[in-house]
Amino acid sequence: MTSAVDSLLEVARSPLGLLGITLGGYQAGRWLQRRTGEHALAQPVLVAIAIAGVAIELLDVDYLDYRSATEMIAFWLGPATVALAIPLHKQYDRLKGFVVPLVVAVLLGAVASITSAVFLARWLGADRALQETLSAKAATTPVAIGLTQSLGGIPPLAAVFAITIGIFGAIAGPTTLHLLRIRDRRARGLALGAVSHGVGASRMLREHETEGAFAGLSMGLSALAISLLLPLLALWLW
Amino acid sequence: MIKGLTWLIGFQLLGEVVVRLLDLTVPGPVAGMLFLFVFLRLRKPAADAPVLRAGSGLLRHLQLFFIPAGVGVVAYLGVLGDDWLPIVVAMVGSWLVGLAVVGWTAVGLERLLGEPRDDQPVGAR
User: Fold this and answer.
1) Angstrom distance (rounded) from CA A105 to CA A100
2) How far is A61 from chain B, CA to nearest CA, in Å?
3) B15 to chain A: nearest residue by CA?
4) Residue B72: inside a domain, yes or no?
5) A17 Cβ contact list (under 8 Å, min separation 6)
6) Mutate to test the interface with B, among A66, A73, A81, A115 (most CBs of B within 10 A)
7) Is the alpha carbon torsion for A211, A216, A221, A222 positive or negative?
8) How far apart are the first and last CA of chain A?
9) In a domain, B24, yes or no
10) Nearest-CA distance from B8 to chain A in Å?
11) Do residue B94 and residue B55 come from a single domain?
């Protein structure tokens, strides 16, 4: 009996088992999303993270082992990011007359989100390393990690912040945009992509193709704007 | 399917190479996205072209690919400790400030420049 349990646990802890838990968690999240009529909290990524997080805790699997077992899933984030060009291509006509508002809004947004993160953190007593780590969190995860590294912050924490704010945006984005009375679909996508990068874009793609397309574009442009502006702002901020 | 994925990975590779050669901080896939966009504008492939089908297929499950990184958040929660208050306030506060600045600037400039709007239908949420 004990040996049967042991061998079951062994399978669950294997890379295949961890992949299965992750995919199963994602499918459970999609099921919940359908069952709740697309409730904002029922984001498949959130449900899957909760399930997989509890599972590796119970199975006593180290996060780094989990991460390497699921590399096969994380790998596709790259090609999927490239594919964000597709909705933008289909929505090309909607770029007309929007280029100037788009560029100005993304630049101002990058300055606003960097400085407000730093000042709020400083006001509440965060040390400099933590302020630096928070400053880049609006950028897509690899950019946030890279920038935090060059500033002197804490790179693994930067990844945590970036992904957390992405999921927060996927949950709260559309409702907040509604409360802010932003009704233009291009501006809605642009705004959420600028502060919640790819995870925000994944929510906007479900809302409307235009919103998803502009969120994807905004993620790319904001990554560019934040990586150009943060080193300059850092001279003044610290 | 594989043909389309090959195209996507090809553009990602192109992005990685250019980013490294020019020493940019932008990630390779983001550069690859801009290259694919230019390519699609120039070539205008048919709606059922392999690259479009594979890409749309991946985008339908975009959230799946964030799960491995997201589980790291659970692993890190305990480390936040005493700093949770500045972290939560700075994260949510600057998210809201950024969202409002980008959204209002874009809408305001459209109005100022007399550009056409692209509003949701009245009554939509």
Assistant:
1) 8
2) 11
3) A82
4) no
5) A11
6) A81
7) positive
8) 62
9) yes
10) 5
11) no
Q: Where are the alpha helices (DSSP H) in chain A?
A: 2-13, 15-35, 44-59, 63-69, 71-74, 77-83, 85-90, 99-123, 128-135, 141-151, 155-179, 185-207, 209-237
Distance from CA of A9 to the nearest CA of B (A): 20
- pLDDT digit of tens for each residue in chain A (238 aa)? 678 899 999 999 999 999 999 999 999 999 999 999 999 999 999 999 999 999 999 999 999 999 999 999 999 999 999 999 999 999 899 898 899 999 999 999 999 999 999 999 999 999 999 999 999 988 888 888 888 888 888 888 888 899 999 999 999 999 999 999 999 999 999 999 999 999 999 999 999 999 999 999 999 899 889 988 998 999 999 8
Tens digits of residue pLDDT in A175-203: 999 999 999 999 999 999 999 999 999 99
Provide the domain limits for residue B106. Answer: 78-125
What are the boundaries of each domain within chain A? 2-75, 83-237
Residues B54 and B4 occupy one common structural domain? yes
- Other C-beta atoms lying within 10 Å of the C-beta of residue A178: 14
Q: Are residues B56 and B111 in the same domain?
A: no
**A residues 89-148 lying closer than 8 A (beta carbon) to B:** 89, 92, 94, 97-98, 100-102, 104-106, 108-110, 112-114, 116-118, 120-121, 123-126, 130, 134, 137-138, 140-143, 146-147
User: pLDDT digits over B40-97, tens only?
Assistant: 999 999 989 999 999 999 999 999 999 998 998 887 877 777 788 999 999 999 999 9
**B53 and B6 together in one domain:** yes
State the smallest CA–CA distance between residue B105 and chain A in angstroms. Answer: 5
Of residues A167, A103, A85, the one with CA closest to residue B70:
A167
Among A82, A208, A210, A232, the strongest candidate for a mutation testing the B interface, having the largest count of B CBs within 10 A, is A82
User: What ipTM describes this predicted complex?
Assistant: 0.92
Are B73 and A160 in contact (CB < 8 Å)? Answer: yes
> How many structural domains compose chain B?
2
The gap from C-alpha A173 to its chain's centroid, in whole angstroms, comes to: 12
Q: Give pLDDT, residue B123.
A: 60
